[in-house]
């Protein structure tokens, strides 16, 4: 009940400092993938600068967060932050890291994936986790699964295949490509049928780039 002592304690622990940083923007950081049997987690932890993302305490926190979430049934950030690692909650560890490192450190997001016994995880962490990906594939070809995870990281598909494309996405892309073709002075004298064919070709190429299985394979552009 001693308010002055309470304030002193908060200041000594650096927690008062961490509260002041609560409204600052943390947009840098790293992601991490951890796989254990038929379960995998991909986690993003943010800091204010990319320099701090190289800090050993930050890297240890990222590792602890990923492993703790993987071993839990947490589905939201709130549930994850309430999990315990040792004698502290993950929220305590974030508060301590913010106070010690001197930047706002936050759990941005995470996804837990599961697979069946006849499936395999492929994962890839680019540049130490600046970008991370996980894929689930049928079969047991670990090398191919890793390469497909690299494909996702490098080409950023939005959908798995053209069968997954919503109708409004196709219509929107058609509208954009139609305007691009029509606004090009070189096409002013071309017949409508030619314009329509050009639009169709551009839409097809654009939509293929959105779909993983239709993209050019980054290791061999003659393959999809």
Are there runs of 5+ residues with pLDDT below 50, and where?
none
Roughly what fraction of the amino acids lie in strands? 15-25%
Shape: elongated
For the biggest β-sheet, the strand order reads: 1-2-5
Count, helices: 8
The main β sheet shows up as: 3 strands, antiparallel
Helix content: 40-55%
Query: Averaged pLDDT, please?
Result: 92
Instruction: Tell me the total number of β-strands.
Output: 7
Order of helices and strands: HHEEHHEEHEEEHHH
Rg measurement, Å: 24 Å
Distance separating the two termini: 67 Å
Structural class: alpha+beta
Provide an overview of this structure:
It is a single chain. The protein starts with a helix and ends in a 14-residue tail after the last helix. The chain is built from 8 helices and 7 strands; from the N terminus they run H-H-E-E-H-H-E-E-H-E-E-E-H-H-H. The chain has helices spanning 3-13, 15-20, 56-70, 77-81, 90-101, 142-155, 167-182, 192-210, and strands at 30-36, 39-46, 84-85, 88-89, 106-114, 119-126, 131-138. Helices cover 44% and strands 20% of the residues. The longest helix has 19 residues, at 192-210. The strands form 3 sheets. The chain has a 3-stranded antiparallel β-sheet, covered by helices on one side. It has a two-stranded antiparallel ribbon with strand order 3-4. The chain has a two-stranded antiparallel sheet with strand order 6-7. 25% of the residues are buried. A hairpin with a 2-residue loop joins strand 3 (84-85) and strand 4 (88-89). With 224 residues, the chain is α+β, with helices and mostly antiparallel strands.
């Amino acid at each position: 009940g001693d308010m002055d002592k309470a304030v002193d304690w908060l200041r000594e622990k650096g927690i008062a400092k961490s509260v002041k940083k609560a409204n600052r923007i943390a947009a840098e950081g790293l992601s991490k993938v951890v796989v254990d049997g038929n379960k995998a987690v991909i986690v993003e932890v943010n800091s204010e600068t990319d320099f701090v993302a190289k800090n050993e305490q930050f890297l240890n926190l990222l590792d602890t967060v990923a492993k703790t979430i993987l071993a839990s049934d947490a589905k939201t950030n709130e549930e994850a932050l309430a999990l315990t690692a040792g004698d502290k909650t993950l929220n305590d560890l974030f508060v301590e890291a913010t106070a010690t490192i001197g930047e706002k450190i936050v759990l941005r997001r995470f996804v837990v994936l599961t697979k069946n016994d006849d499936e395999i995880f492929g994962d890839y962490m680019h540049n130490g986790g600046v970008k991370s990906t996980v894929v689930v594939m049928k079969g047991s070809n670990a090398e191919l699964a890793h390469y497909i995870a690299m494909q996702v990281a490098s080409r950023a598909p939005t959908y798995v295949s053209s069968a997954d494309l919503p109708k409004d996405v196709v219509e929107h892309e058609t509208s954009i490509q139609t305007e691009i073709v029509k606004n090009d002075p070189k096409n002013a004298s071309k017949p409508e049928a030619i314009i329509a064919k050009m639009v169709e070709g551009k839409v097809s190429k654009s939509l293929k780039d959105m779909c993983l299985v239709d993209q050019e394979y980054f290791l061999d552009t003659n393959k999809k």
